[in-house]
Design brief:
The protein has 373 residues and is α/β, with parallel strands linked by helices. It has helices at residues 21-34, 39-69, 95-119, 140-155, 163-173, 178-202, 207-231, 254-262, 283-291, 320-324, 345-355, 362-366, and strands spanning 4-10, 13-18, 74-80, 83-88, 247-249, 268-273, 276-282, 310-311, 331-335, 338-343.
Length: 373
């Protein structure tokens, strides 16, 4: 995710913190300063915040580890002020898998809440003490327990794509097809998101509107993706090739490549070694090297990721998740080791819009036009 910074890797899953997390820490400092709290109370507040985000991280790892049991690899976990997001490489293949993956996160929080309860035996789940505060060490474990139980309950709200919404889709998926189940779950999520925004404004709580906006945009994006996947089923990559791609010779220097960039505004270029593609490079990598005055650096040395090429005989829906990670990035398409053209997600959507005008699917295809940019 853009704006996030990697802090560590655990079992092949990279943990990132989004820069907006700093806003939460800043807000916490301001609240303590406005309340006149001393350094001891401030320290407990910061420690509590960090403990909560450790629990959020464990929640996301719960999803990731269960997904791994089904052969679905999680690539990264990003911590945001409103919680965490675990990015997995593909969607579960059936409702049973999605149900298990989705419910794992809340179960982790309930397990943490239960374990913390053993550390404070005899303490009721709900206390009536009005002086209760996370600013004091003696309430630290109790409050952390309450937060974990609250996280579990909150995440079970059926607001897709939150855990509860995914659980709802999985349950619907036992009776309906995936597209219908997603549409119902996404619509339910939007209604709940609007309620979050309204109550957040009425209660002057900025977190609820932020979650509501996140739900609306995220639900829409996944619904569009699944709709697109159903529309491209049966179409092969070699049917949607682009031939007007732009390329650079891999052994060109940054200075030589910059001359091409002056008259060409393509975002991505195929790197060629003679007639063979060896990588894809974003123009910003070249501009960055130019700004650092690495004029004589070969541009092939700027490529950070291993070349990924696609088999032209494969159907689009089998590689759609790869293409969806970056809708503008171009991928070389091969046919028996021969380079035959390139493809990206934007062009696939354009292909559908241009070639399916007189089909019964076109009303659904038209809705995808908003994804182009």
């Amino acid at each position: 995710m853009r704006g996030s910074y990697k802090i560590l890797t655990i079992r092949g899953i990279s943990l990132h913190v989004h820069w907006t997390f700093l806003l939460l820490i800043g807000w916490l400092l301001l609240v303590n300063a406005a309340s006149g709290n001393d350094i001891n109370q401030l320290s407990w507040s910061v420690l509590f915040l960090l403990a909560v985000f450790v629990c959020v991280t464990l929640h996301e790892f719960g999803h990731a580890l269960v997904a791994a049991r089904f052969g679905i690899q999680a690539k990264e976990i990003v911590l945001l002020p409103i919680g965490g997001i675990a990015s997995i490489e593909k969607f579960p293949e059936n409702p049973r898998q999605e149900l298990a993956i989705s419910i794992a996160g809340p179960l982790v929080n309930l397990a943490i809440g239960g374990a913390l309860g053993f550390l404070i035996p005899g303490t009721p789940l709900l206390k009536s003490d009005p002086g209760l505060s996370i600013m004091h060490g003696h309430d630290f474990i109790y409050n952390l327990r309450i937060v974990n139980i609250s996280l579990a309950v909150f995440n079970l709200i059926p607001a897709f794509p939150m855990d509860g919404g995914r659980i709802l889709r999985a349950l619907l998926g036992f009776k309906l097809n995936y597209i219908q189940a997603t549409t119902i779950a996404a619509t339910t999520g939007r209604i709940i998101a609007i309620l979050f925004i309204v109550f957040g404004i009425l209660l002057i709580n900025p977190i609820l509107p932020a979650i509501g906006v996140f739900i609306i945009f995220s639900a829409g994006a996944e619904e569009y993706y699944l709709r697109l996947k159903s529309l491209v089923k049966g179409i092969k990559l070699n049917e949607v090739l682009m031939y007007d791609y732009n390329s650079l010779q891999a052994n060109s220097t940054v200075q030589e490549a910059s001359n091409v960039l002056n008259s060409n505004h393509s975002k991505y270029f195929i790197l060629m070694d003679g007639i063979d593609p060896i990588g894809t490079i974003n123009r910003m990598e070249i501009i960055k090297a130019l700004a650092e005055m690495n004029y004589s650096e070969l541009i092939k040395n700027l490529v950070k990721e291993k070349l990924e090429h696609l088999d032209g005989d494969k159907e689009i829906d089998t590689v759609l998740e790869k293409l969806a990670h970056n809708d503008e990035q171009i991928y070389p398409v091969m046919d028996n080791s021969h380079f035959i053209g390139v493809v990206n997600l934007n062009h696939i959507i354009e292909y559908l819009l241009l070639n399916k005008v007189n089909t019964k699917e076109y009303p659904r295809i038209k809705s995808l036009a908003g994804l182009l940019h």
